[in-house]
Amino acid sequence: MRSTFDKLPGLLANGLHPVYLISGDEPLQQQGAADAVRAAARDAGYLTRELLEVDARFDWSSFAAASNSQSLFAERRIIELRVPNGKPGKPGGDALRAYLERPPEDTLLLIVAGKVDASGQKSAWYKAIDAAGVCVAVWPPRQHELAKWVAQRMRMHGLKADRQAAQLVAERTEGNLLAADQEIRKLVLILGDSAVDEKAVIDAVADSARYSVFDFSAAVLAGDAPRAARTLAGLRGEGVDPVPVAWALTRDVRDLSVLASELERGQAMNQALKQVGAAPFRQRELQAAVRRHPGVQWQRFLQRCAALDVRVKRARGDAWEALLDLSLAVAGRPPSVRADSIA
């Protein structure tokens, strides 16, 4: 069956299915949905977990081997398969279908994937998961829904915030739920259980950090490579999680890829911008940035974003270096120019 993030807890309370697919490009809800499945599985006695990361070098025979192996202590287990680009390809699709023909009784398969597009949802592997288990697509709230989401998140963290305060946090984070959650957690630390209004948010945000993800995004879109590099170094120095930074860069590249494609098809700029669906202030930034590279290059950048996502989520030490390399390329800095040469 197909479900949503909000309905997933109720489904889990009614019993477990042999397979769950959590797909989408919104990391906070994706993480929350996957955590909910893991927690329900643990409560049901699935005590071990095997993690498999699908990248360009992944051998799908290792998935088959993991599926066929028995736990040493006959424990129930979770096989977690991460497919960042949402496309297992033909070998992966065949392997998943073979698995679902006779799923092991002691195993729960959790697939955490990037966005599965319309053609992917028509594929045989997706339909097999849909028939045997639960497919949960996670999407960012629409722009008009974001303030409501922020207000609910604030209440969950114990903040007594008015409508204007929630709206301001929503406007600052512009659909990035990880960044919104980060802002809310800062407010909890700074303000505690005090009443939160618009002024309190402005004052707290001004005091909490010198650099922001939004400064970084604006610098990249503006083609200001030196400022992008300095802001990225500042974010790293302040201990910011690289996940929302990578999310912001991927969002921008994805929107620019769509925009470039629409323009190359002959669409007028205004119509192409509507197709992207970005907020008005971002439309101006995207319009200025899209001419910097041809459409095929934006597609290549999007592929690099998928690889970047894997590095960041693995918490590898070179994640910040990969972020820097890609952001400088998007900003138009020649690849030969390194960070230490940017003043």
- Write out the strand line-up for the largest beta sheet, numbering strands in chain order: 1-6-2-5-4-3
Q: Uncertain spans, ≥5 residues at pLDDT below 50? A: 335-343
N- and C-termini, Cα separation: 54 Å
Q: How much β-strand is present in the residues? A: 5-15%
SSE blueprint and pairings:
Blueprint: E1 2-3, H1 8-13, E2 19-24, H2 27-43, E3 46-53, H3 60-68, E4 76-83, H4 89-101, E5 107-113, H5 118-121, H6 124-132, E6 134-138, H7 143-156, E7 160-161, H8 163-173, H9 177-191, E8 195-196, H10 198-208, H11 213-222, H12 225-237, H13 242-264, H14 269-276, H15 280-289, H16 295-313, H17 319-331
Parallel strand pairs: 1-6, 2-5, 2-6, 3-4, 4-5, 7-8
Helix pairs in contact: 3-4, 4-6, 7-8, 8-9, 8-10, 9-10, 11-12, 11-13, 11-17, 12-17, 13-14, 13-16, 13-17, 16-17
How would you characterize this protein structure?
It is a single chain. This protein is of the alpha/beta class and 343 residues long. The model is unreliable at 335-343 (pLDDT under 50). It has three domains: 2-138, Rossmann fold, CATH 3.40.50.300; 143-208, Helicase, Ruva Protein, domain 3, CATH 1.10.8.60; 213-341, Zinc Finger, Delta Prime, domain 3. The chain is globular, with a radius of gyration of 21 Å. Helix content is 60%, strand content 12%. Helix 4 links the parallel strand 4 (76-83) and strand 5.
